[in-house]
Amino acid sequence: MAGNSLPSLGRVKLCDLIACEGLPSDSYKLSVSTLSQSLAQYSAAIIQFPSSDGALLRSGLDSAHLYFHQRASYPAADMIHNNESREWCKTSGYYADPQQWQETYDFRPGLTPPESNSGLEFPPAGLPDIFSLLGKAARDILDAISFYLNLRSSPFTEILDNVPLRSREISSSVLSVCCYGRPSFQGPQHHNLTTQEDGQLVMFSDHEHQVDKSLITLVKSDKAGLHVRDFHGRWVLVDGDLGPQEAIVYPGLALYQATAGYVGPALHRTEISNMQGNMYGRCSLAFKLMPKSMTSLNCSEMRAAGHGVEAQFQLPVPVDDFMQRSHPTEQLFNRNNFPSFNFPTAQDGSMKPLMRRRKNNSRCKPLPPSKRLRLEAQRVLKERVQDIADKKGIKLRFCNLKECESHIHTLDSPCANTRMEIGWPPGVPFVHPHDLPNKAKIGFLEAYEPGWTATHDMELSLIEPGQASQHSANCNCNSPVQVLYTHENTFFWTKLLFCD
């Protein structure tokens, strides 16, 4: 990533991310690549709205100041937010979390907020206009990410709300007006206190590791304090130098699931210190683009674009179940491999992959090409052939290449039943692909992994050292080896020669 790393959070104009008919412009391609690189490196990016939209955002924050300032010092019992996951698509109106010093007003089109016990209550002003503005921006950003992933246009339309909403429909997406640390707000005030190196006291909420379950989240705040964990595990202040018409965007868990892990979710926390001299606290507008509750998150678009989909993303996940399920962050951010892909630019016609493979230890020496090829073949086998075996309830146990040369001619061999049940082609050794010579490995990957080539992410020699003698001894140069691979639930056969 060093060759393409950004020195700071990427800044992108929203108008440059809006797709147009025909070929993409240079500004569009540059903006998409900057956005995607910033999301890969910092898990966030800065979006610049037009100046007229910036005025609407500022007025929304001013209205939020007045709304929360006039509220009671302590919320009623029915206003206490219990973080009930089953109600994720039904929140509307005012909620409070006294332990976190946090107050929220959720605006959800199609859903009327409950009446307040205190009588007539006026919500923050301009919420429908702000919802429309940020919702359109979130969809444009989502389409830009789709373009970077080589997906077709608007691939997530089926899981998003209708535009506009139909009669009696309730929006899944939500605009949350938030207030942190209002001085007049009384609560238990249970906080974690940490001390920075310069001796200043910094206060974070108890739940320091928060991940939104949205597709895309846009946040505009009146004060700095939003921290996001970057690629290296460091906490970065992302809204420290925002302009009047700038907002922060970061991806959520739903996009992580829908893209088979290619776009990692942002881990974030909010600083709520230094509020003593401020009468309003820290206010923010947060729009969350959410999938519809009656749909499913699946990776069919990623498969159609030729991306590898790991076993954990193979089956569709109902959105309602996904929102109610807990997602341990350790499993999300400790993945060994992070898929990569290319994106062309106008300057030199090509660009190195921006979304790199994540390593457990970045200081380790890179693996030799032959070793990486072996591991790549092993990964693809697990994703493709293992999935077939799992669905049929078959326990795979591959043979040694030399031993299996005799097995293929014997009816009662140890692998005979397995080869028959899995649908392995007759006369082909039932061996793990990393036992095959390099040229057969390359052909195996080209068959199983659409778009994979020998020059993809590595430089490879066709025959690895020390294997040439074994290769000549174990194969007949005139006999083809067939490799089984799947595409859209159909079996195909590709003939691969061990040698020319």
What is this structure's SSE topology?
Elements lengths: L10 E3 L12 H17 L2 E4 L2 H19 L23 E5 L4 E6 L19 H22 L25 E7 L11 E4 L5 E4 L11 E6 L4 E4 L5 E3 L8 E6 L1 H6 L9 E3 L11 E8 L6 E2 L2 H5 L12 E2 H6 L4 H5 L35 H24 L8 H7 L8 H7 L15 H11 L19 H7 L5 E8 L2 E8 L3
Parallel strand pairs: 1-2
Antiparallel strand pairs: 2-11, 3-4, 4-5, 5-13, 6-7, 8-11, 8-13, 9-10, 9-12, 14-15, 16-17
Helix pairs in contact: 1-3, 2-3, 8-11
Describe the protein in words.
InterPro entries: IPNS-like_sf (IPR027443). This is 2-oxoglutarate (2OG) and Fe(II)-dependent oxygenase superfamily protein. It comes from Vitis vinifera (Grape). Mean pLDDT is 75; it is low at 188-207, 334-364 and 456-500. It is built from twelve helices and 17 strands. It has helices spanning 26-42, 51-69, 127-148, 253-258, 300-304, 319-324, 329-333, 369-392, 401-407, 416-422, 438-448, 468-474; strands spanning 11-13, 45-48, 93-97, 102-107, 174-180, 192-195, 201-204, 216-221, 226-229, 235-237, 246-251, 268-270, 282-289, 296-297, 317-318, 480-487, 490-497. It has two domains: 11-332, B-lactam Antibiotic, Isopenicillin N Synthase, Chain (Jelly Rolls), CATH 2.60.120; 369-497, no CATH class. It has 500 residues and is an alpha+beta fold. The protein has an eight-stranded mixed beta sheet with strand order 1-2-11-8-13-5-4-3. A three-stranded antiparallel beta sheet has the order 10-9-12, with no helix packed on it. A two-stranded antiparallel sheet has the order 6-7.
